[in-house]
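Quick one: C-alpha cells for this chain, please?
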Amino acid sequence: MPNGKGAPDCHYCRYHAFGRTVENAMLNVGRSIRFPVCTKHNSSLPLVNEQRICSAYDSIDSEGQVSSIEAFFHAFHVDPAPGILYVYFYNDTCIRELMDLTMQTGIDVGP
C-alpha cells in the first residue's frame, strides 16, 4: 500500500480530495484545516486516528496493480455495505462501521 504499512486508507483512494479550507479557532492564528472529502460519495470524511476505508476504495499500487479491497475485508470477516465508512487500527483484528457516507449531500470540494 502507498502508506508504507500495508494498510489501505481513504487518503490513498482515487476518490479522496481536500475540500474547503476552514479557519479553526482552536488552532494558532493563521492556521486552517483542509477537510478531507470523498468525491465518490460526495461526502466529508471525519478526521480520525484510525485508518478509514469503504467498499468503493480504489487505489493503484506502485507496480500499477489494483488493490484487492475484497480480500482486505475478507480478512476481517466483513461483507462491506455500500456507502459505509469503516475504521480500523493498523495491526488490529477489529474493524467497525463509523458512518454512512451516502447520508450527506452537497459537499463543497472546492479550494
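The mean pLDDT is 78.
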